[in-house]
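Trying the structure run again after the queue cleared.
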Amino acid sequence: MDIYAEILRLRKEGRRGALATIIQVQGSIPSYESSKILIRDDGSIVGTVGGGCVEAEVWAIAQDVMREEKPRRIHFNLNNNPEYDEGLVCGGSLDVFIEPVLATPTLYLLGGGHVSLYVSKVAEMAGFDTIVADDREAFANKQRFPGTVEVYSGAWETIFPRLRPNEFSYLLIATRGHKGDLECLRWAVSTPARYVGMIGSRRKLIEFFKLLEADGVSAENLERVHSPAGVEIGALTPEEIAVSVAAEMIAFRRGALSSAPSLAYHPKVRQTESRSETPKVCASADNN
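Done. C-alpha cells:
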C-alpha cells in the first residue's frame, strides 16, 4: 500500500494519522534513512522503520503527536544499552521525525452576506476549505463564492442534513437575521465541529442561550459558542471583521487562543435572572 495515497485517503475522510520518517542515521541500524511508517488514528500502520522497540516507541509517541497536533523529533541510540531491545544492538543511532497527518480544516459559512464573503477569502488564503450555505440562492452560489468547495441554498432544515462537519470543521453563523442565526446555532452546537462562532452582540447571545437552554440544550454545548466571533482589533467594516474572525479561528487551530484577545462572551445562563415574558426572535435584523 502506498503511504502517500493512504495519507490522502485519511485526510479526505477527516481522520488523523502520524507520519514517522528516519531523517538521520549514524552507523548500523535495522532500517535505512528516509524509511517511513504511517500510524493511523485506529492504531493500524503502513510501512516500517525497522520494527522492534524503536517502532513500538515511535507508535506510542505518534499517539501524542496526533492528539497534540504538533511534530516531534526523537533520537534513538542503539549501542547505548544492550538491554534496550532484543535484536537491535546494531551499534548505530537514528533520528525519527514524527509529524501529524490532519484533515484540511473546513469552514462552514452559515449565511452568505457581506461578512461571510470576506471571511471566505481570508480563510481560503489561510488554508481552510470553505462551504457556504444560505436560505437565499442569490447569496449562496459559485459566482459569489468562486473559491468555495460547495454551496447550498434553500430552507435551513433542508440544508443541515446535507452538511457533514467533523472535528476539523469550523462553523461561522452570520445569517440575514436573528431567526436564521438561532436556527443555525441550535444545529451547530449539536455537531462535533471544533469551532462554533456567531456574529452578533452579547445581548443577542444571552437571549439565544436562554431559549436554547429552555429547549434542553446542555450548558456544555452552549459554552462552545464563540460570540461575538473574532479577536479584538477594533474591526468595523466587513473586511476588518473578516480578518478578526479568521484570526480567532487560526488561533484556535494552532492552540494559541488563550493568548489571543478574543471577543467571545460566555454568559452563565443558569445564573441570569429569568424574565416573565419569553424573548421574541426578530426575523428582520441583518448581520450582513
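The CA atoms of residues 125 and 155 lie 29 Å apart. Worth checking whether this holds up in the mutant runs.
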